[in-house]
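Take a look at my tokenised protein here and describe the backbone shape.
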Amino acid sequence: MLARAGLRVVLADAGGDRDFRIGEGLPPSARSLLSQLGVLPRVLADTHRVSPGTLAWWGAARPHANDFVFQVQGSGLQLDRVRFDAMLRDAAREAGATILPGAHVRLRNAAAPFRLTAGTAEIETEWLIDATGRSAGLARALGAERTRYDGLVGFYGLIHSDADTDRDGRTMVETTEAGWWYSVLLPRGDRVLAFLTDADLVNRAALLADHGLWHALRTAPNLHALCGQHGYRPTGRVFGADAASSELTPTAGAHWLAVGDAAAAFDPLSSKGISNAIYTGIKGAEAILAARRGDEGAMARHAEHIGDIHRVYRSQLTAFYGMERRWSDAPFWQRRIAGA
């Protein structure tokens, strides 16, 4: 957005090359954002898998289906995140941005013009955008603070089957006493298997050990049966990640702002991560362009808007967790349904 407006933009990308990245669900509502960026045709033409909806064992023993076919925007997508992210970088480069791959950023001063090192590059910039994810490293170096609302963590890995019989592209969700699971069929044929719980309620070492997550799947009988039906077995290592709801305060200041998970991070249950990253990226660009035109309130409004988004989200999340009452005496659920 900024490069297309004629600004000189440097994107320092420390992500590096990956074979797999968690965060694959793109809801139908994200299509309008991709269209605004001008990349929707490229996404639809790529090798991502159409997602017809969700199937959730949540609040009852029988599953509830949410079919995207009834939504105006159409189907969602299960993304190959590595390809999707690479496409977005290519689009930024084509718009005129300079991409610095594998470049970790270090901030050398705390006021504009900002001076940074990005890998071997020395950069001076009038505007600084923190898109570093949940770490919000740049914004915290400028004095911002992170507020966490829960202790949610995720453990995830890939499972593989040689049977090639699984065709269900829906996101599968199942609750258990200690948290909840989800599984998604990826475009390349493997499934993501993920377990969400609180950090203090789980033996982290056991889940990260060989086949630890796979053995724990027995607590989710419906997903366990699905995986058994299609002959899935674990492949590769298990990863752990912060999945808590959190937000930055403030999310903008003099000549800087935060976007995506750096500004506000969401429980994976909400499926808001990718959409929020794109949306706040667009809004962040608009705020900078407005400020450059002399709008002195642009940064403050950006910060206020993100705060409003996160407040509404937390209210909705509490209500959704409150729908599951079968384990109301268990610590994980007690913490989430107290205000529901």
Observations:
- The first helix runs from residue 30 to 37.
